[in-house]
From TrEMBL:
The lineage of its organism: Bacteria, Bacillati, Bacillota, Bacilli, Lactobacillales. GO terms for molecular function: ATP binding; catalytic activity, acting on a protein; histidine-tRNA ligase activity; transferase activity. The gene is hisS. PANTHER family: HISTIDINE--TRNA LIGASE, MITOCHONDRIAL-RELATED (PTHR43707:SF1), HISTIDYL-TRNA SYNTHETASE (PTHR43707). It comes from Ligilactobacillus araffinosus DSM 20653. It catalyses: tRNA(His) + L-histidine + ATP = L-histidyl-tRNA(His) + AMP + diphosphate + H(+). Belongs to the class-II aminoacyl-tRNA synthetase family. This is Histidine--tRNA ligase. The keyword Ribonucleoprotein does not apply.
């Protein structure tokens, strides 16, 4: 209708289209991760993007920001309470329990990794979207602090392998059940005199889960907790031994670290070792920003109905990592090579051009051709723009003589060869 504006369809707020050029960067990071995880003997697990609400409300903690503010949850047509996964660990643990992967027939530690989208309803900002992507690992069945250090080392190796080297590792311990019980009371005793000054969120958490107050983003809350008692003063003998071993093993591997006694992480299921790996990339204005984090969660399998099984893992935000790589383009080594571009001159070369391009692909080469009936000059320009290593040119005369002109685009050398050789053994032609 005249005067009627065109309806514009746009992606939902907090989501992003990953276009073809950008996708190459994602594939680069994912390929590096798969390559590294294979060396550490981790295997991929894929879980649903949505789970029953209780999987996350029970594991993440009823007072955590994820549960109280950020989860995309709804009732489906069968009135089931469903949640789009806000993080990867709980779904993997649910699968671990449901499929009885704790059985004696499975190797311990049972080591898996995952890649995929996660969903949190929060204010979109650079590197933090409502649909975001994580790469993560989980290892079950071993309570040895050596595994804690191996997981941390693997996270550092992963970031280094994609080209991120200016990193800071920050660690802490949340101790065992007795540690947290004693510390919880000491923290409540310290915070209660400040209750009227706390933010509304922290007031609500004060008696339900006071450790959450340490994680508050409110500036006034942060000032109050500056002088709070340290959990490191409440560690049991076993917890202290576990943490001391972690620190010693990190030192033995030459991995530098800092201890931050106020770090608690944003999820309630952690105990003992927790860690964050930060980058001071110019993508974050030179400010230290977390790009990978994780820790130990020895009670999580039990919470979802399984036997007592220790676990540890980490999660890495892909969008945030790509911000770092985009800020330093030289660290991206994207493979988009074109081995050969077929230049067909005249309509009669169309069939043979298609035959050649398919034959090269079947031989393991990347190959392309013109589909727009462009003049030879336009086709050669395209080959140059795509950085083709070779051009293979055929025209009416070449068809009649069963020949093709193969040109090395780097040296400029050009030879006339048999079309049969190109189609059957291109390696021999370019040798």
């Amino acid at each position: 209708m005249k005067g009627m504006s065109l309806l514009k369809y746009q992606k939902p707020k907090g989501t992003a289209d990953i276009l073809a050029d950008e996708s190459a960067k994602w594939q680069y990071v994912e390929a590096k991760a798969r390559e590294l995880f294979k060396k550490y003997r981790y295997h991929e697990m894929r879980t649903p993007t949505f789970e029953n609400f209780e999987v996350f409300s029970r594991t993440s903690g009823e007072t955590s920001d994820i549960v109280t503010k950020e989860m995309y949850d709804f009732h489906d047509k069968g009135d089931r309470h469903i949640t789009l996964r806000p993080e990867g660990t709980a779904g993997v643990v649910r699968s671990f329990v449901e499929n009885k992967l704790y059985g004696p027939e499975y190797q311990k530690p049972y080591k898996v990794y995952y890649m995929g989208p996660m969903f949190r309803y929060e204010r979109p900002q650079s590197g933090r979207l409502r649909e975001f992507h994580q790469i993560g690992v989980e290892a079950f069945g071993v309570d040895n602090p050596t595994l804690d250090v191996e997981v941390i080392a693997m996270a550092m190796d992963l970031l280094n392998s994609v080209g991120v080297h200016s990193l800071k590792l920050v660690i802490n311990t949340l101790g065992d059940l007795e540690t947290r019980k004693n510390y919880r009371q000491a923290l409540i005793d310290y915070l209660e005199p400040f209750e009227d000054q706390l933010s509304e969120d922290s007031k609500e958490r004060l008696h339900k889960n006071p450790l959450r107050v340490l994680d508050s983003k409110d500036e006034n809350d942060q000032k109050i907790v500056e002088n709070a008692p340290s959990i490191l003063d409440f560690l049991t003998e076993d917890s202290q031994k576990h943490f001391d071993t972690v620190k010693q093993l990190l030192e033995n591997l030459g991995i530098e670290y800092e201890v931050d006694a106020n770090m608690v992480r944003g999820l309630d299921y952690y105990n003992h070792t927790i860690f964050e790996i930060m980058s001071d990339s110019k993508a974050f204005g030179g400010k230290w920003t977390t790009v990978c984090a994780g820790g130990r969660y020895n009670g999580l399998v039990e919470q979802l109905g399984g036997p007592a099984t220790p676990g540890i893992g980490f999660g890495l935000g892909v969008e945030r990592l790509l911000l770092v790589l985009d800020a330093e383009q030289d660290k991206l080594q994207l493979d988009d090579e074109l081995d050969a571009y077929i230049v067909g001159i005249g309509d009669e070369t169309n069939v043979k051009s298609l035959e050649i391009v398919q034959a090269l692909r079947h031989q393991g080469y990347t190959a392309d051709r013109d589909y727009l009936d462009r003049k030879p000059k336009g086709q050669f320009k395209t080959a140059s723009r795509l950085n083709a290593k070779y051009t293979i040119t055929i025209g009416e005369r070449e068809l009649q003589e069963n020949k093709a002109n193969v040109k090395n685009m780097e040296t400029g050398n050009e030879i006339s060869v048999s079309l049969d050789d190109v189609i059957n053994d291109f390696a021999k032609v370019i040798k």
